[in-house]
Amino acid sequence: RGIRVGYTPDVLTDATAELSVALLLAGCRRRSPLLLSDICFYLALSASGGWTTWKPLWMCGYGLSDSTVGIIGLGRIGQAVARRLKPFGVKKFLYTGSRPKPESAAEFEAEFVPLTRLAEESDFVVVTCALTPATQEMCNKDFFSRMKKTSVFINTSRGAVVNQEDLYNALAHGQIAAAGLDVTTPEPLPTDHPLLSLQNCVILPHIGSATYATRSTMAVLAANNLLAGLRGEPMPHELLL
């Protein structure tokens, strides 16, 4: 119908990568479904009297040092996540996707592996792939059954990449240790959704791009696309269909 489409590429990378790391760190330790971070949870415990005598394994979780991180989708955001996690002492990076990306993977010495192997060997799984027919519900019962019981699952891509019922069952039955989600199906997630009842699942309201700089840049790009389109000129960022 001759409708031109403008979009805002590349502006979300850093903000989403930072949030992915925040979710991963929140998933590493004990958390509360009503609080968005371990720090808030620990502060609440201290204030409410939950902090009593020292116990050897109280509030213990899992660390990144010497761990294996699996990234599903080593695109711009996946690479930015790996770049931020590398200084934490990650021992090995695995990645999977539609094809190997040796040039991108070289910076992290990341190994391209099948999805099944990534699930089996990763201590942390971070999903940053696009939603396509091939990736829809790729993280399902079979995937979670292959993960370690101590593994943490993070999704900042799209909610439909995950079968949420299967994820709930994996978390509720101790099949995996924890999950951190910035995306769900639907959005907003109903307040009575079973995932929100779990203490080992942190859910954020799709705020991957929520920094002042990112939202400002998005607005400027969208406005410039619109003005160019109205003038009949090439858009600075036009999706060519």
TrEMBL record:
The entry's keywords: Oxidoreductase
Gene3D superfamilies: NAD(P)-binding Rossmann-like Domain (3.40.50.720)
Annotated ranges, domain D-isomer specific 2-hydroxyacid dehydrogenase catalytic: 1-238
SUPFAM superfamilies documented for this protein: NAD(P)-binding Rossmann-fold domains
One GO molecular-function entry: NAD binding
Coiled coil: none
Tree of life domain: Eukaryota
Record-annotated D-isomer specific 2-hydroxyacid dehydrogenase NAD-binding domain positions: 47-208
Family in the record: Belongs to the D-isomer specific 2-hydroxyacid dehydrogenase family.
Protein name, per record: Glyoxylate reductase/hydroxypyruvate reductase
Organism for this UniProt entry: Antrostomus carolinensis (Chuck-will's-widow)
